[in-house]
């Protein structure tokens, strides 16, 4: 029975498929309908790949690196901030500040050019001198000023009045190099638009004010020295020109004196002019006698004695004129021709006149320069006199704590970030 059923099943499985020609015919749908039905069917999805299931994450626990980060935070941030706060509020001594502000002013009176300009003389003659202010700005930070102030005040003793404060107190020796370093810490200089502001710190308000006053006094002395130098420079050139013109005038006058002594003539030009006057007078007389002779020859008899006398007078006048003219070319006591002597004297006279005019101009220029130098002056104008502090403003403890804490915090954060970046690259 069982064998027959198995054979039948096998026979049915092995039987060939029925022939389409003998099977019952089923009407087929049109091609368009089949395409539409195929399009309306949902696409077959591909079987998703099965991923292995990961085990659940373990619970967070404190690693060694976390402990190290906490320890570094305590050592690099908390501990330094705590030590700084302890020092600032228990050991740091109070410091008092004295403030000073001044500028360099220059005053000059109205000059001739200003008066000719009109409106410029109406404007105030007070102005600031930026070059002098630049000099003062450098002078306040110089070793020279530290030496001068230290000679008046014992800076080492003033800045060493807080022995329990080794950080803010002066702990060096009395050398100028050590004092200059402390000067840069205690004296702050601010320069803006020709004005200088100073802040001087000390452990006593009187000491801070005394140092500020000493700085102001020494700066005033420096400005006075610069003012004197400027005046001397303004007068030096005019004084030199005046001295040279005076020497030239002396030489010219000495040359004229030597010429007169050598030729024994006070003024050869005057002598020549006198001779010229004589010749001119003789020529006038000659002209009158010639006119008289002509009238006599026209009106009198040829043997008239007046004609002979007039002719004789004319001849004498002509001879005198010739003699006077010959004197111009005659030799003087030194054997030189008079015309050459007169020419040399005129040259010396021109030199003397030029020297006199040059000296007059140089003297006027010197008087003008001296007047200008007397009108121009520089002085130190203090718009903030050295103040006397009533309360200690320094050290600024809260500000220093914020700066120290912020700097340490930023340093620690950068260090942690660097550590994790290096750890992630492994």
From TrEMBL:
- Which PANTHER family does the UniProt entry name for this protein? FERRIC ENTEROBACTIN TRANSPORT PROTEIN FEPE, TYROSINE-PROTEIN KINASE
Transmembrane segments in this chain: where? 67-89, 400-422
Name it. Answer: Sugar transporter
Lineage: superkingdom: Bacteria
State the organism named in the record.
Paracoccus maritimus
The protein's UniProt keywords, in alphabetical order, are:
Membrane, Sugar transport, Transmembrane, Transmembrane helix, Transport
Instruction: For the region Disordered, give the residue spans.
Output: 1-59
**Does the record's keyword annotation contain Transmembrane helix?**
yes
């Amino acid at each position: 029975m069982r064998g027959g059923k198995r054979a039948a099943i096998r026979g049915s499985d092995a039987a060939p498929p029925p022939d389409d020609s003998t099977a019952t015919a089923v009407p087929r749908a049109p091609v368009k309908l089949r395409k539409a039905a195929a399009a309306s069917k949902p696409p077959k999805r591909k079987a998703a790949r099965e991923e292995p299931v990961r085990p659940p994450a373990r619970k967070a626990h404190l690693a060694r690196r976390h402990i190290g980060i906490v320890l570094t935070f305590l050592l690099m941030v908390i501990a330094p901030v705590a030590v700084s706060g302890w020092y600032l509020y228990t050991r740091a001594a109070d410091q008092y500040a004295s403030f000073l502000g001044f500028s360099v002013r220059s005053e000059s009176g109205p000059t001739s050019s200003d008066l000719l300009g009109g409106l410029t003389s109406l404007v105030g003659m007070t102005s600031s001198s930026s070059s002098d202010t630049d000099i003062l700005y450098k002078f306040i930070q110089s070793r020279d000023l530290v030496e001068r102030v230290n000679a008046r005040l014992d800076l080492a003793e003033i800045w060493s009045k807080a022995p329990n404060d080794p950080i803010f107190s002066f702990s060096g020796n009395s050398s100028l190099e050590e004092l200059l370093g402390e000067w840069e810490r205690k004296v702050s200089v601010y320069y803006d638009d020709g004005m200088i502001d100073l802040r001087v710190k000390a452990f006593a308000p009187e000491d801070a004010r005394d140092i500020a006053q000493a700085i102001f006094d020494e700066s005033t002395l420096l400005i006075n020295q610069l003012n004197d130098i400027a005046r001397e420079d303004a007068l030096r050139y005019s004084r030199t020109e005046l001295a040279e013109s005076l020497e030239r005038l002396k030489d010219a006058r000495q040359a004229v004196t030597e010429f007169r002594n050598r030729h024994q003539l006070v003024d050869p030009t005057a002598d020549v002019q006198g001779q010229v006057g004589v010749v001119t007078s003789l020529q006038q007389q000659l002209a009158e006698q010639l006119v008289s002779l002509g009238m006599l020859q026209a009106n009198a008899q040829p043997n008239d004695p007046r004609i002979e006398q007039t002719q004789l007078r004319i001849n004498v006048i002509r001879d005198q004129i010739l003699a006077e003219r010959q004197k111009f070319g005659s030799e003087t006591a030194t054997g030189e021709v008079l015309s050459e002597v007169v020419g040399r004297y005129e040259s010396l006279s021109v030199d003397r006149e030029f020297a006199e005019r040059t000296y007059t101009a140089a003297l006027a220029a010197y008087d003008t320069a001296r007047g200008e130098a007397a009108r121009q002056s520089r002085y130190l104008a203090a718009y903030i006199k050295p103040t006397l502090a009533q309360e200690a403003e320094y050290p600024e403890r809260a500000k220093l704590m914020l700066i120290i804490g912020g700097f340490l915090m930023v340093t620690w954060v950068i260090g942690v970030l660097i550590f994790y970046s290096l750890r992630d690259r492994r």
